[in-house]
Amino acid sequence: MKVNFVDLKAQYLTIKPEVDAAMAEVIGNTAFINSRSFEADFAKYIGTEHCVGVGNGTDALFMAMQCMGFGPGDELITAANTFIATAEGIGWTGAKPVFVDCDPVTYTMDPSKIEAAITPNTKAIVPVHLYGQAADMDPIMEIAAKHGLKVIEDCAQSHGGTYKGRMTGTIGDAGCFSFYPGKNLGAYGDAGAVVTNDEELATNIRKLGDHGSNVKYRHDFQGTNSRLDGIQGAVLSVKLKHLDKWSDRRIAVAAMYNEGLKDVCVTPQTAADVRHVWHLYVIQVNNREEVMKHLTEQDIACGIHYPVAVPVTPAYEDLGYNADQFPVACGTQDKILSLPMHGDLTDEDVQLVIDEVKKVAK
């Protein structure tokens, strides 16, 4: 029996009539550029005054940072354990990413490491809500307030996740989302958004994504072309109605994994007062290659998130970091393994994965 890592086809079939009708409406109305309807829906769901749709999640990070005024000579602190897009968004502004290690239990940014990384050039902190779990935001916000820093939340993996009852994306100055197809809330192509309660920031992000203009052919500054198109917005509005149900299923799947695998590997833990929405389910095993080979032979998909910590990738070798500076992020990169996780997994699927992992995990 095949078990997919993510099963977008199965998900589509469960909502096919809704999605097909929504896409047909966009085509019939030829409303291809921008999706203000989804922006309103998502802002209401998240609980912010503003949502600005953009082309993808990386653009969301870059555009939020650019419109906050960061640039050459500035430093922004972020997590060593993340997808490279977090650091790319910082770099595209001309600013420098400064990395700190992650917490050994949650894998999110370790707040106790932040203050040692602050310099006179530090302008912001960029926590990542990784694998579906919120970073520990209270101490992060306290540090930011103490040092006069902005906070930009990377929410690319935490759609619908909460921290002490607050949605991720609503705690800092802005929250940046990716709607890449494999995300918990995914489009049928690239898409992203920035949410904020800062009206001026939202206005400037929208202008930046439309060639520096909010009036046709009047350009206040050099912008870029990054907008959420109508078809993607229509798909996302349909999926948003189902997101909480899918998240509940992910939580149930994670609970099954935790119980079934607790004696054979290091299973992930959920911090107190957090709603973990399980974008990824990541275990640690000492014989990862053997486990991956066995699962592949059983037609069970798996992955690694992430095989190399961002500060020690070739892209950032000029910053001079080494693995010893990130003992948690680099110390676990040969052990972490992501198992199938999506809202359409059956109990039989999950039990099969558990049984096969148990046969070989050490």
Pick out its properties.
single chain; 362 residues; alpha/beta; 7-stranded mixed sheet; 3-stranded antiparallel sheet; 12 strands; 36% helix; globular
Could you please describe the fold and organization of this structure?
The chain has 362 residues and is an alpha/beta fold. Helices cover 36% and strands 14% of the residues. Strands 1-9-8-5-4-2-3 form a seven-stranded mixed β-sheet, sandwiched between helices. It has a three-stranded antiparallel β-sheet with strand order 7-6-10, with no helix packed on it. It has a two-stranded antiparallel sheet with strand order 11-12. Helix 1 crosses helix 7, helix 2 runs parallel beside helix 7 (230-240) and helix 8 (243-261) packs parallel to helix 11 (347-360).
